[in-house]
Amino acid sequence: MISRFKPFIFLLCLVPFAQLAYNAYIGDLGVNPIDFITRFTGSWALIFLIGTLAVTPARRLTGWNDLIKLRRMFGLFAFSYALTHFATYLVLDHFFDWQAIGKDIVKRPYVTAGFTAFVIMLPLALTSTAGMIRRLGKRWQKLHRLIYVAALAGVIHFYWLVKADIRRPAQYGFVLALLLIYRILVTWRSGIARSSSKRAVRPPERVIPKNAPHLFPPPRPGED
Amino acid sequence: MLIKKPADIKSSEITSKELYLSRRKFIVSTAAATVTAGAAIWGLDTMRPAARAYAGEKLPNVKKSSYSTDEKQNSFKDITTYNNFYELGVDKGDPAENAKYLTPTRPWTVSIEGEVKKPKTLDIDALMKLSPLEERIYRLRCVEAWSMVIPWVGFPLSALIKQAEPTGNAKFIQFVTLLDPKRLPGQKPGIFGNVLDWPYTEGLRMDEAMHPLSILSVGLYGEILPAQNGAPIRVVVPWKYGFKSIKSIVKVRFVESQPKTAWNTMQPQEYGFYSNVNPEVDHPRWSQATERRIGEFLRRKTLMFNGYGEQVASLYKGMDLKKYY
Questions:
Q1: d(Cα B48, Cα A29) in Å, to the nearest integer?
Q2: Alpha helices in chain B (DSSP H)
Q3: Residue B78 in contact with residue B148, Cβ under 8 Å?
Q4: How far apart are CA A83 and CA A118, in angstroms?
Q5: What is the 3-state secondary structure (H, E, C) of B162-225?
Q6: How close does chain A come to B280, measured CA to CA in Å?
Q7: Does the beta-carbon distance from B90 to A165 stay under 8 Å?
Q8: Closest partner CB to A170 (pick from B48, B49, B192)
Q9: C-alpha–C-alpha distance, residues B253 and B116, integer Å
Q10: pLDDT value at position B180?
Q11: Cβ–Cβ gap A35/B146 under 8 Å
């Protein structure tokens, strides 16, 4: 079902890039174009990071398992927008002034946080292929839990950069917090389920089905 | 009355000015409809830059000034659609869009209080006659590390101070912006409370305020100041970060001790009372060594006192500018 719409969703994910390219082409990037591109790509990187994290909860809540097929695509779009964001900073904002960039990363907490998020996303993007999923096995899942750290670092990056108006970073933070709380609740519940199944003295009614709560099912190769 | 056209206006600017002037011939409702429709279109995409929302009449008899820089000026559009005026919204395109709430900025009065011989209230028209209007083309350096070159129209702040007749106790001068959430919707509290402690306040030491570079601005590009830039009257202190140049003032208070200022109250370790442009003293969260001049690609080096060191450095002789940032 989803597979049929996937090319369409892929194109939808490209709309922000297309809008940016179009605005650049007609010369409508505002009075401070570099600042505009930086904010635009940064916002979309955060939106896609949160979108990626929302896939599994959405899947559980709706029972629509096919949604998993979108997760890798969303994750890679998050990385693409983050890469553009970082490249904008590197090339347009500082024009390869390595000294200034190095100082910025070490000295400015908001740059440190943003750079951390980007560095974390790099291995996740590189190990997103079916071959890498197969090769890494169980470790793949562990590695990819780092996306939480990346999203958190991304929101902190935004929060530390604003002067006084924290509304927008707070919105991202709020959604991210909901997603984290959801995961914690699921883990906690499955923990109770598992320990009570160990102590179970009266099988078979209280036995938990073997395939039950599986927190982050890794996509099987070719599934997403 | 002779209507003088400033020589610095680029040809690209003239069309938009004519367009705007012709708009004034329409009745108010037509103008309002245009603004509403425009705002609706822009509102569709909040990340897009805002359209120009308001501009003013030509100001007569504006003198040139030797304090002006001959650097390339930013366009009217740059100056009026990209600025900070948190009372009209926190994004830099917001003030232009929300200027309609503050417009018109007549009638307007400014009260003069505190350590003065006799407190008084001056009407904006009386204020504009305190001293001949001059064009002052100044560099403006924002604390966010971007800068512009802006042709203000105004008069020396010292002219107002002389008129106010401060007493010997007046060591500092405090300015207060209008407090009116209807006209300045950014003053309405949000879910996290107020962005800043309204009304916005700023202050200067008396010798800084008396310095000939310090002006009260009432115009831009030879016209009455647009609301989003702080109409009808604002302070411009070009050697300090932009937030020191307080907008839309209604009160000038002469005081004995260093007054409260808005950003300093909110984040004292980030925004000092002096806030002189200083490439060697970084904002705790970003560097102040370089800046992006709006319209240029490569960053430029930020100059001490925003390049006005020759005129103002003596004000701070013997002061540790790292301590008094």
A1: 7
A2: 11-23, 28-43, 76-81, 94-102, 124-128, 157-164, 206-210, 262-266, 309-312
A3: yes
A4: 8
A5: HHHCECCCCCEEEEEECCCCCCCHHHCCECCECCCCCCCEEEEEHHHHHCCCCEEEEEECCEEC
A6: 14
A7: yes
A8: B192
A9: 9
A10: 97
A11: yes
Question: What pLDDT band is residue B193 in, cutting at 50, 70 and 90?
Answer: confident
Question: A36 CA to chain B: closest CA distance, Å?
Answer: 8
- Look at residue B201 and tell me whether its pLDDT is greater than 60: yes
| Residue B266: partners with Cβ closer than 8 Å, 6 or more residues away | A164, B196, B197
Nearest Cα residue in chain A from B50: A30
pLDDT band at A216 (very low <50, low <70, confident <90, very high): very low
pLDDT in tens, B119-175: 999 999 999 999 999 999 999 999 999 999 999 999 999 999 999 999 999 999 999
| DSSP SS3 for B139 | strand
Mutate to test the interface with A, among B147, B299, B302 (most CBs of A within 10 A): B299
Please tell me which residue of chain B has the smallest CA distance to A95. B298
Question: Does residue A133 contact residue B164 with C-beta atoms inside 8 Å?
Answer: no
Q: What is the pTM of this model?
A: 0.80
Chain B's closest residue to A23, CA to CA, is B48
Q: Does A158 touch chain B (CB under 8 A)?
A: no
The model's pLDDT over A113-171, given as tens digits with 9 standing for 90+, comes to 999 999 999 999 999 999 999 999 999 999 999 999 999 999 999 999 998 888 899 99
For β-strands B249-255 and B172-177, DSSP reports them as: antiparallel
